[in-house]
User: Which sequence fits this backbone?
């Protein structure tokens, strides 16, 4: 028989460790991202508690610096990035009419390296101190001389490993979107979320290598005694700033573009109208991504780059306002003339618009170098980027999670609680961050662990802290909502919002393992809506019913990531003096690193030597299920 | 900046107004059925909201570029400028006046209305030199990338200065004061700074002070350059930049502040480089004596 059913079916934990199904990996990303988001949130609350009054001594100055560093790093790399990947995994293959991503094995590898990198970074709390040089980790503060614990090593190596996962994920989605679109889905018929995921993946491909190089250099400086950033030996600290921000600024757009995508899906659905100005949206997205690589030095206006650089980077930064403005007006005019429903998902999406515009206008103000000399490194900047990342991205993620939850889990989140989440989170958000604009203008610099009284900071800081706790309650309500929903029986309709426009709403919620029994034929933009308007209940299939080729589950990605994790730990402590001679022996002679790398490369070898042809779901099975349904 | 803020407020108002209108006018009403018209886009509108922002950007860009270049001008060698070389340390500020041959710390004394031209550098990690009410900030980089900029104070008074770049645990406490005084006072201050050092009257105490303190600190023409210059510390605005002295809101007597500091420097400013005087073997009595001496070490200007 041509199609062997030799696949091992795992159950329970093993199923999750070995899965290569994009829907399950999406859920794993969501769980891990949620966990780290929670940790980052607790760190945020501790920061706000410390700043609740002047000269507070809740945490020490050193602990405070560790908290701000880990809050920023965790939220950006381990909190919101994986939730973005969760949505991309859960939705992109469905939206383009594919059965999985292009490289299911890599998809799993990407998740596990991200997770182990994140775990490594967070282990620093219990293994001698967290990184303390800020999420930007500017040298020389982050060099051995001034940061003497292993904190920054956890930062460089943890992020290196986690970044590997992100890079792998980005490449995978690029390949998926380029090669696996259903027949008829030309690029200009792709849903907006797919477009933004595509552009974001392209940005990851170009931006992450920069941070990879930067982290390698810093690791070499710290662990192997190199001199890339040591002034005394001819290194340059300003070089780190360039490398970091050549990655760091595109990273902001890597984060926000998927949120733009989510908003562009949610708003049309709940306005029952197609997205206004689709082509200009696509164009604006590409333009933002392109300009995003041209503006990094606006983080460095006060570094002393000289007037020519400052002027050029000011103008290129201001230019980003143009494509962003196009998007804002397109969303508003999508709703114009529509029938807007205020579901929880749509509340977050609509709430996104004014909030993000506020982050945008402060961005343009910061773009002007002379003004930035005042604003830079103050709470004005803190307010600005939280308006963009929380008011923009996190609102977008909540909108997306409420919107696609039924597709991911087969259950609709409770709408009443969802609306409470929105109002608590939104009001808390503005209380927390709106006042911070004024704190910055009054002269409160960022990253200070406390402040002297009589500067007019006291009341505003108190307000900000109260707001932060309201946001916390909003997030807890969301958590409660998901748990409450999980206790309800499954079984929502394919198209629970009734106005779904794209392919993911044509199949079951949650979809079968193979997503589409027959790959659909796409006849225009908003493929499902087009069929609905033509009076069809289902998509027209583009292929006859046939056996479906599936990838086999495998534990190798997990094992490979464990190997890298071990090698990372070994690298970090290679120069450590242990009191235990055995520990010294295995660490100081690089034995731990070698073991870790052997595990990883050994797994790669296994993967290369033993061909895995996957397995097939036969037509009879498909039909059986059809009968059941 | 005012132009930028007003443009931005207008933009915000327009977007908020359209949002509010859309949300009120186009909410789905009970019993509403039928599908709204599926509008693809509107070429004219899209051009409008591309071109108008572009024009706004140009309106903002022109003054921005002008100001960037004005700010970038090097005034360090202007004839009438007062040169100040700033060196930042974890967690204090050193001010050198090369034209006058004077070095001080923490309190930057400047003549009112005169252009003060700075050359900035750091002795350790990156810091950023910032006097919010007088000017924007500028980073202090290690050798090789020295920054220059200038400002002037329009009126006499004391202005708060801060470090604006994360530099370690006591980053938030790395403040300094800018004291703008009349030109005559400034000249008097320079003369007083250049006068020979005044040491404690008690010879034994003077010996301890010389041996234990002047190995790093300096007073007048004596002592070392590693730690803040203490000449005339009794007439400064603060001790260790955050223990504010009398005369400022919430300030305390100088001597009390000096004693708090000398008693346990780490408790005041975590991570600073000063060894605890007690660890150096100073008795409470000696600490009290030195605090008393320093508190009364005032400059007349």
Assistant:
């Amino acid at each position: 028989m041509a199609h062997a059913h030799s696949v091992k079916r795992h159950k329970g934990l093993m199923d999750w460790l070995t899965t290569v199904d994009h829907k399950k990996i999406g859920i794993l990303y969501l769980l891990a991202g949620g966990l780290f988001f929670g940790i980052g949130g607790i760190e945020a609350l501790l920061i706000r508690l410390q700043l609740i009054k002047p000269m507070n001594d809740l945490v020490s100055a050193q602990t405070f610096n560790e908290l701000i560093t880990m809050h920023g790093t965790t939220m950006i790399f381990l909190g919101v990035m994986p939730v973005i990947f969760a949505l991309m995994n859960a939705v992109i293959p469905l939206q383009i009419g594919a059965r999985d991503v292009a490289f299911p094995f890599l998809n799993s590898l990407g998740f596990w390296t991200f997770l182990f990198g994140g775990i490594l970074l967070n282990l620093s709390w219990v293994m001698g101190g967290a990184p303390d040089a800020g999420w930007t980790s500017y040298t020389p503060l982050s060099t051995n001389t001034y940061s003497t614990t292993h904190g920054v090593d956890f930062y460089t190596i943890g992020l290196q490993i986690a970044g590997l996962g992100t890079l792998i994920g980005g490449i995978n989605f690029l390949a998926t979107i380029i090669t696996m679109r259903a027949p008829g889905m030309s690029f200009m018929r792709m849903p907006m979320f797919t477009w933004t995921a595509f552009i974001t993946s392209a940005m990851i491909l170009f931006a992450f290598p920069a941070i990879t190089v930067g982290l390698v250099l810093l690791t070499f400086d710290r662990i192997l005694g190199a001199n890339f950033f040591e002034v005394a030996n001819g290194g340059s600290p300003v070089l780190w700033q360039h490398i970091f921000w050549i990655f760091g600024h595109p990273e902001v757009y890597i984060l926000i573009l998927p949120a733009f995508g989510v908003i562009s899906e949610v708003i049309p659905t709940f306005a029952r109208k197609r997205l206004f100005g689709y082509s200009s949206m696509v164009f604006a997205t590409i333009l933002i991504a392109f300009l995003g690589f041209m503006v990094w030095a606006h983080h460095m206006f006060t570094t002393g780059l000289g007037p020519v650089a400052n002027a050029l980077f000011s103008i290129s930064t201001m230019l980003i306002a143009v494509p962003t403005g196009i998007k804002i007006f397109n969303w508003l005019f999508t709703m114009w003339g529509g029938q807007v429903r205020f579901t929880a998902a749509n509340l977050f999406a609509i709430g996104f618009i004014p909030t993000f515009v506020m982050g945008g206008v402060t961005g343009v103000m910061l773009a002007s170098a002379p003004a930035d000399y005042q604003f830079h490194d103050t709470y004005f900047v803190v307010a600005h980027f939280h308006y963009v990342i929380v008011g923009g991205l996190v609102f977008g993620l909540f909108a997306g999670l409420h919107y696609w939850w039924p597709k991911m889990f087969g259950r609709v989140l409770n709408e009443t609680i969802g609306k409470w989440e929105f109002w608590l989170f939104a009001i808390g958000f503005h209380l927390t961050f709106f006042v911070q604009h004024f704190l910055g203008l009054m002269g409160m610099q960022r990253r200070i662990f406390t402040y002297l009284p009589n500067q007019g900071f006291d009341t505003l800081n108190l307000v900000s802290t109260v707001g932060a706790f309201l946001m916390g309650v909003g997030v807890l309500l969301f958590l409660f909502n998901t748990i409450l929903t999980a206790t309800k029986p499954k079984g929502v309709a394919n198209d629970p919002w009734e106005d779904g426009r794209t392919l993911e709403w044509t199949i079951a919620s949650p979809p079968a393992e193979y997503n589409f029994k027959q790959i659909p034929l796409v006849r225009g933009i908003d493929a499902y809506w087009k069929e609905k308007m033509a009076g069809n209940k289902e998509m027209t299939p583009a292929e006859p019913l046939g056996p479906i080729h599936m990838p086999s589950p495998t534990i190798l990605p997990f094992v490979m990531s464990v190997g890298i994790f071990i090698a990372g730990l070994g690298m970090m402590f290679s120069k450590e003096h242990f009191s235990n001679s055995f520990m010294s022996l295995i660490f100081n002679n690089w034995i731990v690193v070698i073991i870790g790398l052997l595990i990883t490369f050994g797994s790669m070898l296994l993967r290369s030597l033993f061909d895995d042809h996957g397995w097939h779901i036969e037509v009879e099975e498909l039909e059986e299920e059809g009968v059941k349904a | 900046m005012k132009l930028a803020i007003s443009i931005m407020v207008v933009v915000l108002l327009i977007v908020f107004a359209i949002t509010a209108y859309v949300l009120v006018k186009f909410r789905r009403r009970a019993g509403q059925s039928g599908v709204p018209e599926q509008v693809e886009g509107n070429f004219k509108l899209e051009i409008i909201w591309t071109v108008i922002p572009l024009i706004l950007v140009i309106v903002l860009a022109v003054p921005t570029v002008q100001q960037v270049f004005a700010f970038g001008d090097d005034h360090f060698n202007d004839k009438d400028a007062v040169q100040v070389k700033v060196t930042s340390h974890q967690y204090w500020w050193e001010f050198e006046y090369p034209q006058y041959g004077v070095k001080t710390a923490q309190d930057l004394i400047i003549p009112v209305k005169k252009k003060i031209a700075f050359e900035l550098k750091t002795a350790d990690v990156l810091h950023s030199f910032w006097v919010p009410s007088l000017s924007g900030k500028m980073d202090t980089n290690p050798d090789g990338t020295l920054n220059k900029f200038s400002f002037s104070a329009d009126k006499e008074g004391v202005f708060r200065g801060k470090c604006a770049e994360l530099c370690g645990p006591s980053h938030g406490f790395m403040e300094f004061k800018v004291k703008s005084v009349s030109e005559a006072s400034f000249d008097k201050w320079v003369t007083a700074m250049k006068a020979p050092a005044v040491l404690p009257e008690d010879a034994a105490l003077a010996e301890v002070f010389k041996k234990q303190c002047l190995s790093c600190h300096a007073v007048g023409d004596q002592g070392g350059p590693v730690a803040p210059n203490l000449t005339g510390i009794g007439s400064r605005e603060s001790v260790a930049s955050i223990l504010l002295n009398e005369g400022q809101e919430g300030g305390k007597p100088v001597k009390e502040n000096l004693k708090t500091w000398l008693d346990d420097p780490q408790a005041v400013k975590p991570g600073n480089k000063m060894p605890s005087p007690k660890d150096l073997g100073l008795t409470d009595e000696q600490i009290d004596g030195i605090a008393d001496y320093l508190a009364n070490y005032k400059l007349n200007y």
User: Anything to note?
Assistant: The two ends of chain A are 28 Å apart (CA to CA).
